[in-house]
Amino acid sequence: MAKVIYGGQSYECGEDSVLDCLTAQGVPIPSSCRSGNCQTCLMRAVKGKVPADAQAGLKPTLAAQNYFMACSCHPQSDIEVVMPEAGINRLAARVASVEYLNADILGIRLNPSRPLEYRAGQFINLFKDDVTSRSYSLASLPALDEPLFLNVRKVPGGKVSNWLFEKLRAGDEIEISEATGDCFYVPGNAGQDMLLIATGTGLAPLYGIVRDALQNGHRGRLVLYHGSYDAGGFYLAEELRELERKHPNFSFVPCVSEGIAPAGYEQGMVLDVALRDHPDLTGWRVFLCGNPNMVSAAKKQAFLAGASMREIYADPF
Amino acid sequence: MSLFTDIGGEPAVNAAVDIFYRKVLKDDRINRFFSGVDMEKQAAKQKAFLTMAFGGPHNYTGEDMRKGHAHLVAQGLNDTHFDAVMEHIGATLTELKVPANLIAQAAAIAESTRKDVLGK
Ligand SMILES: Cc1cc2nc3c(=O)[nH]c(=O)nc-3n(C[C@H](O)[C@H](O)[C@H](O)COP(=O)(O)OP(=O)(O)OC[C@H]3O[C@@H](n4cnc5c(N)ncnc54)[C@H](O)[C@@H]3O)c2cc1C
User: Is the CB of residue A158 below 6 angstroms from any atom belonging to ligand 1?
Assistant: First the structure.
């Protein structure tokens, strides 16, 4: 008989779903439709096999991280489950290098003290002290065995970003969390076209995702739009141009929203330019990162332009 | 559960959710009731509702429907808005080439929630 392990306790499920089994024994799990649709009872398996039925209709990035719907999960073998937010541990990391990527953005490379499982585009929490942390996206690729690569923008008056700019040096040891987040590339459907839109350091996760997709042999078009007020706001542009030369299916379009755009740049708000170039997104995979207003407008616009809700991935920050 | 199977089951609902929700967001008569900040949560709710209308598995009671829509009724949700939603359900299924007799059955199920949704 399959057992469900939750919070250090073991429960006999019998024929019941994980939801019924846990709630019957007094564990409070939020739920609503109880038929595998509304996703209110989302949980994550940390050990054991999740039956496919329990992931029907979930976003592929959630399924890839073993999230499932407790109401439609009837485990065939023992399974250990946690609430969606739980189970993210801390670890130490050594600063390998710190460099300016432009006047306002710092590139930080870190070597974690133990191998870190992650996907390009997920984020870690970086601790300034025991109680103060901020999230930063991973622009590096685990497959290339690179150090973790973060892009941090200097936020006026910002506690952690200014501390990083002023104090962080190569050789320092800092504390980070394990990686989390569901904005990343899932291999498969290699011919699918992908639209990626970033403002500011929203480029960090997308730089990781683009390279991850190319590394996985993605054949569909990958079009990356990066928005900034003026030409001074861009970074990693040389690397992206180089990637463009190597991979004919990848294109990089920097967009300047204020003033006159120099040669090689598009003029206008990044979202407007991207949708002008690609008005029909039926069948596309879409990634949106950066300014929360841009991301929320872009989510709606991309959906109305035909992208499926399940194929729009976003991190607003 | 044969209506659900005939309509095409879970894959059909997935296809219908996108089409239906897109229609709703474009409809100025009703989009204010649906434009919650989190579009994914909204879409998941639409999916649960469509699953029910398509005769699929669900555990909603009339009381759930009342509670779930009370805040919208307070914002003025009424019969004309419900009619608009019914229109979009029909148009969505037509677009998916579902036969008319099945559309009528789904519409009847959706229609049966009217009193509870509108808190009457
Ligand atoms: C999923 C995710 C991924 C992210 N990825 C990245 C990334 O890759 N790169 C990146 O640069 N950032 C990223 N961020 C943002 C990052 O986590 C931080 O929010 C950012 O660096 C600012 O932190 P801070 O401590 O410097 O600023 P905070 O100290 O948190 O301040 C933020 C703003 O609030 C203002 N403020 C602070 N305190 C007060 C107050 N008492 N009253 C009024 N105003 C106040 C500050 O002036 C500042 O403008 C990400 C965020 C998320 C959620």
Answer: yes
Cβ burial of A26 (10 Å; 0-12, 13-18, 19+) is: exposed
CB contact at 8 A, A253 and A261: no
CATH for A90-177 is: 2.40.30.10
Of B37, B40, B47, the CB nearest to A37: B47
Q: Which of A166, A155, A212 is nearest to A187 (CA)?
A: A212
CATH number of A3-82: 3.10.20.30
Residue-wise pLDDT for A44-57, tens only, equals 999 999 999 999 88
Joined together, the tokens standing for residue A14 give: 């019998």
- Full domain range(s) for residue B54: 3-117
Paired tokens of B60: 């909603």
Of the residues A135, A154, A180, A209, which should be mutated to test ligand 1's pocket, given the most ligand atoms within 8 Å of the CB?
A135
Tell me the CATH number at B77. 1.10.490.10
Judge if ipTM > 0.90: no
The count of domains in chain B is: 1
pLDDT of B1 > 60? The answer is: no
- Domain boundary assignment for chain A: 3-82, 90-177, 194-316
What does pTM read for this prediction? 0.88
| B39/A32 touch (CB, cutoff 8 Å), yes or no | no
Report CB contact under 8 Å: A32, B26.
Answer: no
Assign domain A194-316 to its CATH architecture: 3-Layer(aba) Sandwich (3.40)
Which residue on chain B is closest to A57 by alpha carbon?
A: B14
Min distance A201 CA to chain B CA atoms (Å): 23
3-state secondary structure of A158: coil
Q: Between B13 and A85, whose confidence is greater?
A: B13
- Residue A88's pLDDT is 76
What six digits make up the tokens of A96? 């390998």
